[in-house]
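Usage

Read records sequentially. Each one opens with the input sequence:
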Amino acid sequence: MSKEIIESMAISLHAKLDRKNIFPPLYNDPESYVPPVSSNDNYRQKRIPNAFLMCRRNVHMEAKHKGSFDMRVISKVTGIFWNNASFEEKTVYKKLFKRVNEIYHERKYSHLLIPTPSTPSKDLEETPMIYSSFSSPPTISPPLSITTNNINPQNFFHDYQTNELLLYDLYDTIFLI
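and closes with the structure output:
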């Protein structure tokens, strides 16, 4: 299709669409815009749509009701709507984008937020002082030292268990309070 044909089809479709279904967005559920988070690192993940692309999706949904499916025309119509929109109308889409971005990053990085007790962080072992409680004024505990230099072979299992329990207590103190 030539540029002139797309332009004339866009003007025609623009006149048919109900602006009230686009500003504010009729389709405003942030969950519907969040791309899936892939666990495969080799897979190129979909980008989070920006405010304009969310507007284009609303224009596309509205255009489906009118029988138009050509994305070149829909993109052109979206550009017309977007350029004629007020700052307040665009702000609704920008807030929607911000919420979608938050949801996406919560899902993508949720597994990194809570360390597991089975893999204690190196930071925990190297911390010189640990606060044992945050509900009352902080008290400072002596640093936790786990060394293998002075392990008595007869008490090896007992020392190992004690150090492991200390790590779990340390984890509970830091992350669960």
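Summary fields computed downstream for this record:
- Residues 34 and 104 are 6 Å apart (CA to CA).
- DSSP finds seven helices and two strands in the chain.
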